[in-house]
Every structure is written in C-alpha cells, then in structure tokens.
Amino acid sequence: MGFREDKLQEVMAEPAEPLARVLPRMDAAGLQVMLVVDARRRLLGIVTDGDVRRALLRGETLNAPVSRIMHPQPKVLPVGTPLQAAREMMLAYSIRHVPLVDEEDRVVDLLLWVDLFGLKRPARPEPVVIMAGGKGARLDPFTKILPKPMLPLGDKPIVEVIMDRLYDQGFDRFILTLGYKAEVVRLYFAEGNGRPYQVEFVQEADPLGTAGALGLVRQKLEGTFVVTNCDVILEMDYSSLLRYHADRRHQVTVVGSLRDFTVPYGVLQIEGEELSGIEEKPSFHFLVNAGVYVLEPAALELVTPGVPLDMPELILRAKHHGLKVGVFPHHGRWFDVGQWEEYRQTLKALDFSG
After folding, report:
1. Largest CA distance in the chain
2. Residue 213: which residues within 8 A CB-CB, separation 6 or more?
3. Which of 30, 77, 170, 186 is least surrounded by CB atoms within 10 angstroms?
4. pLDDT per residue as tens digits for the range 261-285
5. 42: number of CA atoms within 13 Å, CB side?
6. What angle do CA 262, 340, 352 make, to 5 degrees?
7. Are 281 and 265 in contact (CB under 8 A)?
C-alpha cells in the first residue's frame, strides 16, 4: 500500500509557491491535501481543504505563499509504521492524511483515509431538496422541449447525475420541487424503480422563484437539509460541508465557489488627474454563490407558502431575523450547466462528450 513516486510528486509544493499555482494541482489530484517540502523533500507543513477555507475566510489572496497557509506541525509517522497505528492516529485526531517520513523528515509516502478504511461512505440522514421547477430560459430553445432538470449529460439527465453523485456520498432521500413541464420529470422517474434512493416530488401551482418552493416541503423536513439547484454539479466532500455547518451552529450555510476573473486589458492607475501606472490584465478572485446550501427548519419559517421568493432574498431575510448565516468556501470544480457554454465545457470535463 502506498503512492507511486509520480503520484507523490503531484501532491508536493514548495513553500514560496502562491496559492494560485498550488490549488489547481490540489484539485486535479483530488486528495484534498498538498505536502509542503523543501529542496531536499523534507516536510515543512501540510495544506488541507480546511486550511484553504480558513485562509480564504480571513482574506488571504491567491497570491499568498502556501507557507503562510500550511499547518506547520502536521501529524506524521515514520516509514514502516504498522497500518493499525496509522488508523488509530487518524481516528484519534480526525485527520484523513498521514505522511510517512524517514529519519531526516523527508517524505517517503502518504497514507489516506480511503487506504485504511475503504471507500464506503456512511449513510447520511439529511434529505436533499433539488430546485427543479424553473424554465431554464438561458438554455432556450432546448428547454422549449424538455425541462431543465432533464438536460442530458451522457445517457442520463443532469438531475439524475446530481442524485447519483450525492448517493455515492451517502445521501438517499431526494425531494424534487417541480413546475415547468413537471410531467416529463415524473414520467422519467416512474419508469423502473431500481434506483437505490428515494425520490419524492412537490408541485408548484405557479412559479415560486429559486426559494419559494421550500414552503411546499416544510412538512417533509424535520432537521438539517441540503438544497441544490438542478443545474449545478460540485465536486465536493459534502460531509465536510455538513460538519462545518453543524460545528458553527449555522441556520443557513451558503457554498461559495472560488472564481478567478482576469481583466483582458491594461488597467490604468490614476492619482488625481495623472497616470501613476498600468497593470496589465490583472486577476481578481471572488467567492460566488454556487447554488448549494445547508439549511435548518428555522429558515423555512421565513418562507410563506405559495408566495414567490428567491434564495438571495431568503438569505438576507434570515440575517435580518437574527439567524446565523455562514459561507463554506469551495475551491474544487464547479459546473453550472444552466447556460450553453458551461454545458459544453461540462460535457468535456466530465467525459460525457462521447
């Protein structure tokens, strides 16, 4: 058991490297960890998903070196340690990665939770509400024929791809809020009941916006629940999101996806009426609303059944009423297939293009 040398190199970073260069490699490796090493490959620190979230929340930019973000004293074990000792360490400290080092602290291997405990995810009790009632105007004329949740990704509609991926993370109860062309969605899921998860429906009589349909599911929800738009796919560990939400006792947690925007021109810097400099094609990063949320039933009290309401308004209403609203920064891949160009890119990125 262990990493091949080439795979181990993919999760190593130098301390002076900016976060902007490290994050793409971290996301590509898909292990939610980077090992910070010196020129001799001695371990200096470790950067996990949680370290990145904390850095973004305290205002660090993508130009920050990983040495400022890393945890400088990670838990390690000497190479040759029995695997049972690694299991005990992971359980004792709630960690998912243990570097193995030699007598000079050089990285030799990396043990992962999945190596020691397997792939199986524990079942999750939280239901997932999928907002699937909109017309999908950005995908016109496609949505004149099919509703947006039935947009095909490979041989399945996007809403089923979303549910399959969430089922792989332990979720098995899904509530779809339907409106436009609802009968198409119902007929599709009525064909064959071999799916390993439960699918329920609620029906809008009239369009209720991106949050108004939550008023229709109030009686179905007794505790924490997840809400997702039907046109977004996040490559994210949802157990981390739910743990973050619970630990901070939020009533609403909004997933914020890290996005970079580059101005394609030279930006003029002015002092008074005089030019002080020109910055060529500057880049900025923002946390944008990814269309995925965790809510408590208290938030549903702010939704009037049958009255249109959009999610940004519900979030602001929650803050106004004193509910605790937080943001969970996400730096992995996020696909918004609600517009044609993103849809085409998603087909390629997720290998649905055939």
Report:
1. 70
2. 131, 133, 177, 179, 202, 204
3. 30
4. 888 999 999 988 899 999 998 888 8
5. 9
6. 100
7. yes
